[in-house]
Amino acid sequence: MDEFFIYLRLGFDHITDPRGYDHILFVIALCAVYTIRQWRQVLILVTAFTIGHSITLALATLNLIHYKTDLIELLIPITILITAITNFFFQESKSRSSSKQQTSNRSWRYGLALLFGLIHGMGFSNYLRSLLGREAAIVKPLLAFNIGLEIGQLVIVGLILSLAFVLLDILRSSRLRWTLIVSGIVAGMSLSLIINNEYLSELLK
User: Fold this and answer.
1) pTM for the complete prediction?
2) In whole angstroms, what is the distance from residue 84 CA to residue 202 CA?
3) Which of the residues 12, 99, 105, 197 has an alpha carbon 20 to 30 A from that of 128?
4) Which one-letter DSSP state was computed for residue 196?
5) How far apart are CA 49 and CA 109, in angstroms?
6) Which of 76, 84, 86 is nearest to 181 (CA)?
7) Is the pLDDT of residue 111 over 60?
8) Quick one: 148 exposed, middle or buried, by C-beta within 10 A (0-12, 13-18, 19+)?
């Protein structure tokens, strides 16, 4: 049981580590267009991301899929940039008559979160495999690490939605301004990660 909690803590620390902030940026980009009153939509969105990265985290850790690590490290900030850019065009209609449009908007965002989750899962697996080494029994560490990731992810979501609540509901700031500022910061930071990516530099030579 001690081993389980060790890997659970490692998963939590990995996604919340400010030094490896790429995954944090992605979760922030996912939540930037929502308020705390829309927590159900956020929960579904995060669940879609969770399903995606859980699949590839398991497959990659069990050596059932293989890929170029350098390519994944480039794709992760690209997924962050795309998510942040889509926030600039996101519209949440308040009209009941446009419920079909709202459903359509949510569906493609859920699909995007699932797809990008597959990519992030391969990034998570790189770290987990380095921890496991040649350890024979990896199912329990894999489960514990994944749960730790989810707890950390929910902490980040909670912090972002709480900050949005303070600014939007208490201080009455502009929701559009909040979305644009947060998404703009995330887009800028992810673009910096892409530009400074060594694999991209090699490709452009």
Assistant:
1) 0.90
2) 26
3) 197
4) T
5) 10
6) 84
7) yes
8) buried
